[in-house]
Write a structure and sequence with these properties.
With 164 residues, the protein is of the alpha/beta class. It has one domain. Helices cover 41% and strands 14% of the residues. It contains five helices and seven strands; from the N terminus they run αββαβαβαβαββ. The protein has a three-stranded parallel sheet. A two-stranded antiparallel sheet has the order 1-5. A two-stranded antiparallel ribbon has the order 6-7. Strand 2, helix 2 and strand 3 form a beta-alpha-beta unit. Helix 1 packs across helix 2. The longest helix has 19 residues. The two termini are 26 Å apart.
Length: 164
C-alpha cells in the first residue's frame, strides 16, 4: 500500500468515524458542500482487491471507553457500510513515527490510516508520507470548525481531516 492509498483510506475510515461518533460540533462552523474527487489513484488496488482491510494506527482515542466505542460501534459500522474490514492499532507517538519511517523506507506500507495530533501530521508531511486530500469527496451534511479546516492545510496541501 502506498502514500496515495493512505490518504484514500483515511477518507473512508474517518468518514465512518465522523458519522458514527458525531464528534465534530460546537462553536462556529461551516458546512462543506458535496463534490466528487477530480482523480482517483490508479496505481494501487482498491481495498477489496488488497484483501479488504484497512489498518488504522492511532495515538488518539485510547482511553478504554473510547477504544471500546471504536471497536464495538465505529469499525463494525464502517464494515457494514463499505464491506471493508478495519483494524485499530493503538500506538504511541514515538512508535508510530518509527513504524511509518520503516514502512516507507522498505516500500511495504501496511498502515492505511493514521489518527494523530496536528504536530505529528506536520512532521509526517515534511517526510513526504501524506498525500494531498484537497480533492477528496466532501462530507455532505457535515460541518467543520473553520480554523480547524485552515490548520489541516500544511505546506499548501490538505493533509488531514479535522475529525476530533
Amino acid at each position: 500500500m502506498n502514500k496515495k492509498m493512505l490518504g484514500l483510506f483515511l477518507v473512508g475510515v474517518l468518514t465512518a468515524a465522523i458519522f458514527a461518533s458525531g464528534c465534530i460540533g460546537g462553536g462556529q462552523t461551516s458546512t462543506t458542500p458535496s463534490s466528487t474527487p477530480s482523480s482517483t489513484p490508479s496505481s494501487t488496488a482498491s481495498p477489496s482487491e488488497a484483501g479488504g482491510k484497512v489498518v488504522w494506527a492511532s495515538t488518539q482515542l485510547m482511553p478504554p471507553a473510547e477504544r471500546a466505542f471504536l471497536l464495538n460501534t465505529v469499525l463494525p459500522g464502517f464494515k457494514e457500510k463499505t464491506g471493508i474490514d478495519a483494524e485499530l492499532i493503538p500506538i504511541s507517538q514515538s512508535d508510530l513515527n518509527m513504524r511509518l519511517a520503516a514502512e516507507e523506507k522498505s516500500g511495504k506500507v501496511t498502515i492505511s490510516v493514521i489518527g494523530d495530533l496536528h504536530g505529528a501530521m506536520d512532521y509526517y508531511d515534511s517526510q513526504g508520507w501524506l498525500m494531498d486530500l484537497s480533492d477528496m469527496p466532501k462530507l455532505e451534511g457535515r460541518t467543520f470548525i473553520p480554523i480547524f479546516q485552515k490548520y489541516s492545510v500544511i505546506r499548501g496541501k490538505k493533509v488531514y481531516v479535522p475529525w476530533m
